[in-house]
Amino acid sequence: MDALNMAWQRRQPEAGLLHHSDRGSQNTRDVYRRALERLKAVQSMSNKGACWDNAVQESFFSTLKVELDLQLARGTRAQTRSEVCEWIEVFYNRQRRHSSLSYRSPVAFEEQAPYPELSLH
């Protein structure tokens, strides 16, 4: 819920945003579905057992775990959360080049996109 609200506040998308997720329990809870309805977002989930629709998310989390070496427990939960947030906001979105974006960072890609409402900043 915190991540959804933070993303919504930062991006301010129009009604009808397509929000894709897998069928994990956090995405199917009534409170989460009601929040999406309140934000006028359309929830999209793949069928049970269809892994292709969430391949992008799975790839992201795999990259996060490998690049931050999250197999090792270190610090407090708050410290780990801060480290993950910094990795996403500073490195992943602004510096890391993505092959699917013609080897540009998401911020650089969106700066060149013809849709200014999609800007990350």
Automatic annotation (TrEMBL):
Pfam families: rve_3 (PF13683)
Signal sequence, start to end: none
InterPro entries in the record: Integrase_cat-core, RNaseH-like_sf, RNaseH_sf, Transposase_IS3/IS150/IS904
Gene3D superfamilies: Ribonuclease H-like superfamily/Ribonuclease H (3.30.420.10)
Domain Integrase catalytic: from-to ranges: 1-114
PANTHER family cross-referenced by the UniProt entry: TRANSPOSASE INSF FOR INSERTION SEQUENCE IS3B-RELATED (PTHR46889), TRANSPOSASE INSO FOR INSERTION SEQUENCE ELEMENT IS911B-RELATED (PTHR46889:SF4)
Record's protein name: Integrase catalytic domain-containing protein
Organism encoding this protein: Deinococcus aerolatus
